[in-house]
Amino acid sequence: MIPWLADDSLDFPPLELALDEPNGLLAAGGDLSRERLLKAYRKGIFPWYNPGEPILWWSPDPRCVIWPEDLYLSRSLRKRLRKQDYTVTFDQAFHRVISACASPRPKQDGTWISNDIFCAYLDLHHQGHAHSVEVWIDDELVGGLYGLAIGRVFFGESMFSRQRDCSKIAFAWLARQLQYWGYELIDCQVYNDHLASLGASEVPRQYFAELLDEFTVQPLVHDWAFDLTREAFNGARDE
After folding, report:
1. In sequence order, which ranges of the chain are alpha helices (DSSP H)?
2. Which ranges form a coiled coil (predicted)?
3. What count of Cα atoms within 13 Å lies in the side-chain half-sphere of residue 155?
4. Which residues of the chain form beta strands (DSSP E)?
5. Residue 239 falls inside a structural domain
6. Which of 60, 79, 98 is the last residue of a domain?
7. How far apart are the first and last CA of the chain?
């Protein structure tokens, strides 16, 4: 059994009470209010559930992260990043990005991004907490991602690609810009091969929570606009 969150409290159970199987399941219930979501992320907890299920809250162990300075770019991706046929923006089409992320993927029957999730993160975007990265080719949205920025941590949520490598382009530009601004960490939640190809690693949940205690306290003040050029990738770690 896992705890059921009270509607009148924003408290979460201690992370060490999360289940081993399924990995990281911590609690159920509650709501997707702005206050609860921000508190959850600061503690290393995020919601993930299928439509028709109660809200489920997770904190997996280990945790997948990318240190911005450890962004890994293959030779082919670095070459792609230098081409002039695309543009990258922040927060120009958040609604369209999360809609694209919510679209079913090949070999998937549905999506975990329900209307409630959609509305909750759109509210976070309107309040300046959630941000999107868009990749454009000939004025067509071909890739992107979205997530939350709290303090010096960016919590990645989902990404999509309609042309080859366009989600990687979005992530590479994000990571380089975050590094330039002084961000310490990108949370990727759960390890997979796609993230590993960009330099992701895993850290113990307790260590991740300690990092959040340190890095989510002091907010960074900056405009959400790219001020990098393609030369930012000249010295990127590659194979």
Report:
1. 34-42, 75-82, 94-102, 115-126, 166-181, 193-196, 205-215
2. none
3. 27
4. 4-5, 25-29, 46-47, 56-58, 63-66, 87-90, 130-137, 140-150, 153-161, 185-189, 201-203
5. no
6. 60
7. 46
Are 40 and 120 members of one domain? Answer: no
User: CA angle, 68 as apex, 63 and 74 as ends, to 5°?
Assistant: 100
Handedness of CA 114, 46, 15, 19 (dihedral sign): positive
Cis peptide before 51 (omega within 30 of 0): no
CA distance 44 to 22: 17
Per-residue tokens: 101: 């992320």
Residue ranges making up the domain that contains 27 = 4-60
What is the maximum alpha-carbon separation in the chain? 54
Query: Which strands form 153-161's sheet, in the order they lie side by side?
Result: 87-90, 130-137, 140-150, 153-161, 185-189, 63-66, 201-203
Same domain for 25 and 126? no
Q: Which two tokens stand for residue 164?
A: 């080859």
What is the Cα–Cα distance from 155 to 84, expressed in whole angstroms?
A: 29
**232 Cβ contact partners less than 8 Å away, ≥ 6 residues apart:** 176, 180
Distance CA 204, CA 16 (A): 11
For residues 113 and 221, state if they share a domain. Answer: yes
